[in-house]
Amino acid sequence: MKYLILIVLLMSTFTAFSQNQSLPVLRIHKTDKSITTIPLKDIDSLVHVSIVPVNLTLLDVKSITNTSATFEARILSRGEGTLGQIGYCWSTLQNPTILSNNVNGTWKDSINFSNSIDSLTKNTKYYVRAFASNEMGIWYSNQIEFSTLNKVVSLLETVNIGTQIWTSRNLEVSTYRNGDTIRHASTTQEWQDAASKGEGAWRYYENDPKNGEMYGKLYNWYAVNDKRGLAPELYHIPSDAEWSVLIEILGGKKLANFKMKSTTGWSNGANGDNSSGFNGLPGGYCGGSNGYFYDIADYGYFWSSSENYTGTAWSRSLVNNNSYSAEVGRFSRYKYDGFSVRCLRD
């Protein structure tokens, strides 16, 4: 059994004596020269207080982002002592202590406390415990394991077209929404291997990053349809029906072709007026069967999220032609082909 010992600070002195045979007392001489007298019969209730460890539990780790998280804990028992420092300690190693990084807690009420930290590393596994102290020492809670996210933070250029909000540049992300890497199939063999496995992949036109600066990446449809999400947060890949709404807003397939095309970059001077703000570029495509590249400066091909048959999905195309017969194309294409991608706001 541990006992709390009454400590007289600031060099106080004390003496025990008896004013009479039946009443022993403790006389405390304080530094301010005053004297406090306490009957010894009352001392037992002051010093015989049992101190035990603090009992606490880590309730939750929530609001996890790339670099931050919020911790919540509860004090179940103060251990009959005086509660000292409280907080959290975390590490990439198990069973972190206050020798690891730590953050002081913030009281919400008499038993719960929480705090947020924003100095974590993205896509990293951490272990966290709450801690609290009293006269017996420092005590730790249960441990919770969590991992920070690896979301792509994209500042997308957008344009309002009717009731829709479209991105005005072709997509050029290298990771899915959850942070997983999209396969970069830089050779014909790698591109065909991804197709044979139904695996999402991307490449630059003619494998030249300079083409990516203008036209973005070419993705197969398996990347478009991956459950991890190709479009950044708050966006999605438009369905075939949503492409149809856009074309209708712009006056039909013939007018839309001219209104959606960029004002530069099309061969033979067949530029559009970009009055829609869509800024459609002729990025060409990559053939899935042979890995060859086609039609840069002549056609722009864009995936929808809508499947047609088992091996095909719907797409749209802008054409290098401003004649009366030119119009936005709608084709069912093989899923292993590599097309440009535009995103639509949720």
Structure described in brief:
The chain is mainly beta. The protein has six helices and 23 strands.
What topology, given as strand order, has the largest sheet? 4-5-9-8
Distance between the termini: 64 Å
Number of domains: 3
Structural class: mainly beta
Radius of gyration: 35 Å
Q: How do the SSEs run, as a string of H and E?
A: EEEHEEEEEEEEEEEHEHEHEHHEEEEEE
Strand segment tally: 23
Largest sheet: 4 strands, antiparallel
Q: Hey, roughly how much beta strand do the residues contain? A: 35-45%
What's the overall geometry? Answer: elongated
What is the tally of helical segments?
A: 6
Report the average pLDDT across residues: 85
Estimate the helix proportion, in percent: 10-25%
Please mark out the parts with pLDDT under 50 across 5 or more consecutive residues, or reply none. 1-21
List keywords for this structure.
23 strands, Immunoglobulin-like, 3 domains, 346 residues, disordered N terminus, single chain, mainly beta, 4-stranded antiparallel β-sheet
Structural features, described:
- There is one protein chain.
- The chain has 346 residues and is mainly β.
- It contains six helices and 23 strands.
- The protein has helices at 43-47, 188-197, 209-215, 221-224, 240-249, 253-260; strands spanning 13-18, 24-29, 35-39, 55-62, 69-77, 86-91, 101-104, 106-107, 112-117, 125-134, 137-147, 158-161, 164-167, 183-184, 201-203, 218-219, 235-236, 283-286, 293-296, 299-307, 312-319, 329-334, 344-345.
- It has a four-stranded antiparallel β-sheet, with no helix packed on it. The chain has a four-stranded antiparallel β-sheet with strand order 7-6-10-11, with no helix packed on it. A three-stranded antiparallel β-sheet has the order 1-2-3, with no helix packed on it.
- A hairpin with a 6-residue loop joins strand 18 and strand 19.
- The longest helix is centred in the middle third of the chain and has 10 residues, at 188-197.
- It is elongated and about 115 Å long.
- The two termini are 64 Å apart.
- Residues 1-21 have low confidence and may be disordered.
